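User: For a teaching handout, I'd like to show students what a predicted protein-ligand complex looks like in token form. I'll give you the sequence and the SMILES for flavin-adenine dinucleotide. Please answer with just the structure.
Assistant: Understood, here is the input followed by the structure.
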Amino acid sequence: MGIFHQLAVATLPLIPRPVMRKLAGRYIAGETLEEALGRLQQLHAEGFSGVLDLLGEDVQGESEARTVLAEYKLGATKIAELGLDAYVSVKPTHFCMQKDGDLAFELYDDLISHCAKLGQRMRVEMEDHPTTDDTLALFTRLRAKHNNVGLVMQSRLFRNPADIEALPTPEPGGHIDIRMVKGIYLEPAEIAHTRPDPIRKAFIEQCISLWSSGHFVAIATHDDGMAQTLLAHIARENIPRELYEFEVLLGVRESLWRGWSKKDLTVRVYVPYGPEWRAYSQRRLRKNPEMLRNVALAMFRK
Ligand SMILES: Cc1cc2nc3c(=O)[nH]c(=O)nc-3n(C[C@H](O)[C@H](O)[C@H](O)COP(=O)(O)OP(=O)(O)OC[C@H]3O[C@@H](n4cnc5c(N)ncnc54)[C@H](O)[C@@H]3O)c2cc1C
């Protein structure tokens, strides 16, 4: 990352809201559930599956967390009514896990049961490293009760191979559903790979390790080289189609994943929405190699 890119990253929090909202536009479906469902329907018509994500994190109180639960339940119900192949995905701190682990368990438990009745799965997302232990413990508790819940794991963390080893044992004939990601949070060098190549190598090794235990892997990436290496492994080892899919982000390298879909690979698009779009959009912009240019253009147009 060049010095100008780094400088621009540092100024992201200072960018006025209307300019930031414009920049966020490519990464989010909008601010309402209706907009997100509309985007999922469009994608469905084009042959893509979906993930629905209400933006937000670090919720501080029970009533706010219960409001989040209600919105997610409504989202799952609407997905079923519209006949979409989509599931909901929730950050633990959006259910207040950092303050009250039992409350987070209760809310996930309620949502997962609701999704099961609708014939849907759902997923517990992974946030930054101070939350990793609690998220893994929460997932283990939830997975003991429900087989329609999955987890996100981050290849950049040194601990991840051991965490894969320690995943719960699924019921006979079942599997654990893992979305493998590189990890969006900038973690310290003492606990995580910080250079691209070791993160990539770890990602590939960890996907292979998950398959060798019979688990399902949602390969969540826009890294074409890494995807090609994994596709070659899938072909060589005859990994069954039921054990993998691609998951990608709205607004990120769309031509790449539209190409995957044309090759008859399952591609599931992550569709985030909601008024709390700022933190998510800043994380995405930070990763955009054209961010500096986009910020400059947006400021100029304003
Ligand atoms: C469906 C999905 C869910 C995710 N959930 C989580 C989660 O729960 N927890 C978590 O920590 N992380 C999550 N992530 C984010 C993930 O950890 C990575 O930060 C993100 O996917 C970028 O990594 P990459 O594998 O695409 O590789 P990169 O090396 O970052 O990118 C590959 C290519 O895509 C381009 N690119 C990447 N991002 C952008 C962007 N924003 N704009 C334009 N170009 C870009 C890069 O320039 C590069 O050419 C999720 C990602 C996906 C796809």
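For the handout, you might add this sentence: The pocket of flavin-adenine dinucleotide is lined by residues 125-126, 152, 154, 179, 181-185, 220-223, 247-249, 252-253, 270, 284, 287-289 (CB under 6 Å).
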